[in-house]
Amino acid sequence: MASYYRPGCENGIRPFFTFQWHLTDLCDQRCIHCYIYAGDPGRTPVSASRELMDQVLEKTVSFAEKLGCRPMYCLTGGDPLLHGDFFSLAEELHRRRIPFGVLGNPFHLTERVCRKLKKLGCERYQMSLDGLEETHDFFRKPGSYRETLKKIPMINRSGMTSVIMTTVSGRNIRELPSIVDACVSAGTGLYAFARYCPSPGEHVGITPEEYRDMLRLCGQKFRALQQSGCKTAFAKKDHLWAIYDYERGALSVPGDAGPDMIYAGCHCGQNHLTILPDGQVMACRRAAGSVVGRLPEDDLWQIWMERMEGYRDVRRFRKCASCPLVSFCRGCPAVAMGETGDFFAPDPQCWFDPEKTSAK
């Protein structure tokens, strides 16, 4: 069996197993890069029934216990707040003392809603900024940019962590430094970005050299802001950060690094699964075609131990398998799959050549 165990955690694995749980497709927006409505903007939204939600909760809790860790839920959609049973689910999670976060929109947030979320154990509320005002509202809808920035202080006042995520493509990559400034000015608790996962036949629209240069600029900006006392934290969500840090000498590779020891990088097959409103289980929501089962019919343990085995076999990554950074990076297989149709193809924005590049 391919290894998904990681050092430094109880029983050799991470203390939490994360479920990205899509409760509903209902949403106030029809974002251009949305996975749900890709190719079919008029499709009928699906929402999980209360019975299915109860079944999924029981199965995921039991699975995590069997794995020897605790479940953590990223409740999303669509906009999860639009699900009629959202708060009853949150109350059940609170009763079980299970932490969760929300990935949603700003439109239905109020001071009362934020306080209620915090009281029920919501640790963070994530929204998106995909450009400055004109670009962001082009991707999402008019008024979304200002509404998002306005809700950041409201989330902070509740005690939750406000999180802003940017989906990077060729259209907005040059705006990233300004997006960071806007987030810092608004008081964002945590900021991160990841690349757009294209639909089959599409492209992210960024060359490897352009992406490396953007990481360099943002890395310098993050460090300067942190040194100045900025309270915003910056998460290096994109796995290609590992290459950049390795090149500048900020990441050292331990002697046991290799395909059998995973320290970081893509979570697919490691400590993460996605569940859709109809009960479908996906290896990765960003990777089209990665459905591995359906709840409640299928056994989640069998899904994880058998159907997910191929996803965590890092030797199948043609470029990454022989790379010294395989334990930390492996690029983004979902981006590779979108552009090539092959989950294990080289990341199209990876610039690293281990035979020519050495740590500095």
Describe what you observe in this structure:
About 30% of the residues lie in helices and about 15% in strands. It is an alpha/beta fold. It has a ten-stranded mixed β-sheet. Helix 7 (about 210-225) links the parallel strand 6 (about 190-195) and strand 7 (about 235). Helix 3 (about 110-120) packs across helix 5 (about 145-160). The radius of gyration is 20 Å and the shape is globular. Mean pLDDT is about 90; it is low at about 1-15.
Low-pLDDT runs of 5+ residues are 1-13
Largest sheet: 10 strands, mixed
Strand content: 5-15%
Number of helical runs? 10
Number of strands: 10
Structural class: alpha/beta
CA-based gyration radius = 20 Å
Pattern of helices and strands: EHEHEHEHHEHEHEHEEEHH
Task: Give the overall silhouette.
Answer: globular
Q: How far from one another are the termini? A: 35 Å
Enumerate the strands of the largest sheet in spatial order, edge to edge or round the barrel.
7-6-5-4-3-2-1-8-9-10
